[in-house]
Design brief:
Number of helices: 0
Mean pLDDT: 94
Shape: globular
Low-confidence stretches: none
Order of helices and strands: EEEEEEEEEEE
Number of strands: 11
Length: 115
């Protein structure tokens, strides 16, 4: 499977960005999708996941209420709407697919939040 993430960029604190991740080569609609990020000098951090049904979602506390994960199974695409961005959200953001575990990863898209 190939995952192509896009939508990163430079934004001021309090601003918004929408990340997209297009998938190909796999039964996308049967996979759980997730977003992760890795800040400079830190480990990769799980942020959110969404089940195949588009209904079941889960968020870590640090992004709950600010980020929204969604998917369009007809377009084989995952989204991450990020609102009220903070400087500490600066990182490379990765999308992933999997069933019992995430085993397919995108190349990452850089998000920089200025104060």
């Amino acid at each position: 499977v190939q995952l192509q993430a896009s939508g990163g960029g430079l934004v001021q604190a309090g601003g918004s960005l929408r990340l997209s991740c297009a998938a190909s080569g796999r039964t996308f609609s049967r996979s759980t999708a997730g977003w992760f990020r890795q800040a400079p000098g830190k480990d990769r951090e799980f942020l959110a996941r969404i089940g195949w049904s588009e209904i079941s979602t889960y968020y870590v506390d640090s992004v709950k209420g600010r980020f929204t994960i969604s998917r369009d199974n007809a377009k084989n695409t995952i989204y991450l709407q990020m609102n009220n961005l903070k400087p500490e959200d600066t990182a490379i953001y990765y999308c992933a697919l999997g069933s019992s575990k995430f085993d397919s990863w995108g190349q990452g898209t850089l998000v920089t939040v200025s104060s």
